[in-house]
Amino acid sequence: MQVTTISDFQKSINTYLDRVSKNFETLIINRANNESVVVMTLQEYNSLMATHHELSSRKNAQRLDEAIEKLQKGQSFEKPLLES
Predict the structure, then answer these.
(1) Are residues 35 and 18 in the same domain?
(2) Which range marks the domain in which residue 16 is found?
(3) What's the structural domain count of the chain?
(4) What is the mean pLDDT of each run of 10 residues along the chain (84 residues)?
(5) Per the domain annotation, does 20 fall within a domain?
(6) Which label site among 20, 29, 33, 55 has the fewest CB atoms less than 10 Å from its CB?
């Protein structure tokens, strides 16, 4: 994780954005009189949103926990994909 000020970010915006995208780093930009902001890749953002969605209800979280438990116990199986 990187942390910078808004003024340093403005001076070297391309460098900071390249680091975020090439190294999958998160960048926190501290703003003097405003709330800090976070910069991350779209891929990382989408991954966080998918995880948030999957864990947003207790029922979903329980199903995921049960599936992980079955997988760890070797109770999984393969199923061929349907082709259209």
Answers:
(1) yes
(2) 2-40
(3) 2
(4) 94 96 94 93 94 88 89 87 83
(5) yes
(6) 33
